[in-house]
């Protein structure tokens, strides 16, 4: 028969020492001249009811779990730095425990967790918890041995590990081994495990604080607004209007869409711009039998370019203008916007012809209509059926011949359809006016009352976005404005099928952003971003003084662009601002502050076009397109986005060099 006693009741009621409770420390660590000493504070005598023991069988076992708390851990002055605590003998007596025949002690688990340690030059005070589980069958002394080894990695090792994690995440995304959301989750988990290994394990509360809830709230609120908006037929109506303005010319339509997206993103957040533009573009391309992927990639590229023109168009610009020290030195909203607007206009003028050159050999029309795809699938099924027949008899041979004849007939029909389709798409759409009339009959506003409600709410939300940037008395961030607008529209629209609205929310995109925020903050705690900034500053300092400003502009812009194409530009910008401020204050360097900040802003914003996850708008656009069945891969975006990033950054670099090195526009 086995007896199981309550642990806290046993300690509080059964101990003969009235001052001993379950919270009384058993072990104490003290600092002496020869090092750390660990000793027993209490030798508790556990008393039990004699009747209870006598009634027990000879094979009675009792399990005690002793929890102890060691405090006041300090470092000996004579010991060397980073020395480990090794082989500390710990003994305490569990006396007068009247158990039966055999004696055996098995220490099954002793885990020491250092909860508050940071990689500093000396040990810091903290709390250590020890859980000991022992099985006793006879009274006796319990020898324990505790080892503490503090593993600390230097900065270079942490940066190397962080770089490996980042490269691993990109390999998973580029090769499409897993979905990009899962890749970001695996990367954030690896980064958190690395932080725990080097002694900086963050708590769950801290990890949750790393997530940018303002961005997630903005995305969620705008996704709900767009989902309700799509029920009105407004996107179909906009697609027909865009087709009318372009007069049936595809490139005129693409140029118009990209230009409008760039202008809107200069005043709105580029994520909001793509949330509004992506459904319109997809519907327009479906009407015109175009491939939406290439048009969407072009739009998101110019959205990122246009967002760099003003102080509110892109998050890095908002961070720069919000810095009080920069504002005290004259870099306010007007000064920042006036300088960046001129450069971005030049970038846009050069980027449009280059985009046309990139799309020169790309077929914007769908390669094949749906009827041709279905016909190909039918041919495949007939041929597979014929191949499965074994012509062992005359009848089976005849059936196989009939099936193969059917395949040949379908293939001939397929060739005719393909020939007709290619002739149609090679001709210029001269009957665009007739097509407009047919499209207007098919695609029209379906719910005018709901459309008025949606336009009213969306107009108020966009107005609040503007006022939030210019009026300091509004204490609502963009996320709150979007959430309140979504709730307001849900009330006005009287939505009964709420699950239908939630199904249109890009949950995978929201989860990807949450994992990406954790990954980037963890990499920042592993000193990856600090290391990039410090190495950039060191390279600038070794340049001769007469060439230092030009080299600084080039180096800061390209480092910012390349870094922002692979990591989130928000933590990178926040880290680089103090580095550049220290450079401008250093009398040995003697560099003006504004050219460095403008180079940082130009590179961080334009660098988002380098990869699919370089900017938030890229991920949002890809998520919505994937939901509509037109998802594009990392490499598809990279083939177009990275060359556009190189050209746009080159134009921006030339503008900054002329403005600050040649003209001297530094005041």
Automatic annotation (TrEMBL):
Superkingdom classification of source: Eukaryota
A biological process from GO? melanin biosynthetic process
Q: Where is the Citrate transporter-like domain?
A: 170-603
**Pfam family membership, one:** CitMHS
Going by the UniProt record, its keywords in alphabetical order are: Membrane, Transmembrane, Transmembrane helix, Transport
Compartments where located: Membrane
Q: Where is the chain membrane-spanning?
A: 99-117, 155-175, 182-198, 218-238, 250-268, 333-359, 449-467, 473-495, 507-529, 549-567, 640-663
Any one Gene Ontology cellular component term annotated for this protein: melanosome membrane
Q: How does it sit in the membrane?
A: Multi-pass membrane protein
Keyword flag Transferase: no
Q: Which PANTHER family match?
A: P PROTEIN (PTHR43568:SF1)
Question: What is the name attached to this protein's record?
Answer: OCA2 melanosomal transmembrane protein
The taxonomic lineage of its organism, from the top, reads: Eukaryota, Metazoa, Chordata, Craniata, Vertebrata
Give the encoding gene's name.
Answer: OCA2
